[in-house]
Amino acid sequence: MKDSVFKVRNVINASGTMTALGASAAVPEAIRAACEILPIFLDIDDLQREASRAIAKATGSEAGYITACSAAGITLAIAAAMTGSDPERIARLPDTRGMQNGVAIQRGHLIDYGAPIEQAVRLAGASVVAIGEKTCTAPDQLEAAIDEHTAAALFVVSHHTEQNGQIPLSTFSEICKRRDVPLIVDAASEYDLTGFIAAGADVAIYSAHKFLGGLTAGIVAGTKEFIRSAYLQNGGIGRGMKVGKEAIAGTIAALDAWSRRDHAAHRRAEDARVLLWTMRLSGLPGLLLEASPDPTGNPITRLRLHVEAKAGINAWDLAEMLAEGEPPVMVRTDEVALGYFELDPCNVSDAEAEEVVDRILAAMRTVEGVPRAGSTYSEWLNKSLDARRAWPD
Question: In this structure, what DSSP letter does residue 12 have?
Fold first, then answer.
């Protein structure tokens, strides 16, 4: 694999649609749309109207618009819940004195997706109202948390959230509707573009640049009145979250491409890569293989590699060996402290899938009989953090 024109190493991405790795490869349709629109001038409001129609068609919502990313979409949706379309309130944010400014969220949904989600709430000037315990939240706790200060409720759909003991979306939505509280759903990394609006969300927020393969942007879909209030934040705190014409055009094109995509064929290709990995790694001493369906219901099955003590290396050091190679192979390490990592088939070619397994086999041969001096998980994590803190060195 050749280095890119920007003098940075290309990596083999067996981790998934991760922002730190460039999220995903843009689909050709999005690239063409961006190239066509970049040299010209136009009215951004008109282009966003085109985006609104495309989003409404794709999601079943009344309207929508494009913003800088899904994290920006969360902040601006919460801002809209507090200000409506009142220009004085929009201009005052993040000063929310005199406004309803509480945002109810299950404690098990207070995740870090690269930044704490509560920070996206606070950026608008709102206050996080955490309900329940991390592993158990009951419907009556949501009921009790909603009061005269509540501006909105936020529901997060992510593999990062606590998957058990949470109020399900159907119940969460029913309570919000009955109590007349706007429901905002963060569905940044979800395939399902229609289910959350159908389930009662006033706003559903998606990434344009992950599974859709658009340029970096966020999609905000919802009721027309709410979307209008969110869009007007571009004249306030949303100014620093503005999106370019190329990302808007790329998102429109990516949504159209998604509607025409042969999803079954893509799933078969991804499953074939997982089968290849499973067949070639099965029986390797110290590795225990397990199919890992996506926890939020996306149609993806990854391969989980449990690294046992007899492998002569621990899971995080094996992941580091793969990342240190040429080219780097990046695996999914969200839960590596538990002794495993995963291989994601979505963003690798068939040739890269072979390379991934070759590299794992080579790494295992390296430590066979001569165990690598291992680090503790804390040491491994601190090394990663130290490297980040030392940027740009």
Answer: E
Quote the CA–CA distance of 237 and 90 in Å, as a whole number. 8
Tens of each residue's pLDDT in the chain, 393 residues:
455 567 778 899 999 888 888 878 899 999 999 999 999 999 999 999 999 999 999 999 999 999 999 999 999 999 999 999 999 999 999 999 999 999 999 999 999 988 999 999 999 999 999 999 999 999 999 999 999 999 999 999 998 889 899 999 999 999 999 999 999 999 999 999 999 999 999 999 999 999 999 999 999 999 999 999 999 999 999 999 999 999 999 999 999 999 999 999 999 999 999 999 999 999 898 999 999 999 999 999 999 999 998 888 999 999 999 999 889 999 999 899 999 999 999 999 999 999 999 999 999 988 876 656 678 888 888 888 888 888 887
Residue span of the structural domain in which 273 resides: 263-389
Q: Does this model's pTM top 0.90?
A: yes
The span from the CA of 70 to the CA of 56, in Å, is 17
The strand pairing partners of 103, in sequence order, are 128, 152
Same domain, 181 and 293: no
Please check whether residues 118 and 242 belong to one and the same domain: yes
Provide the β-strand partners of residue 142. Answer: none
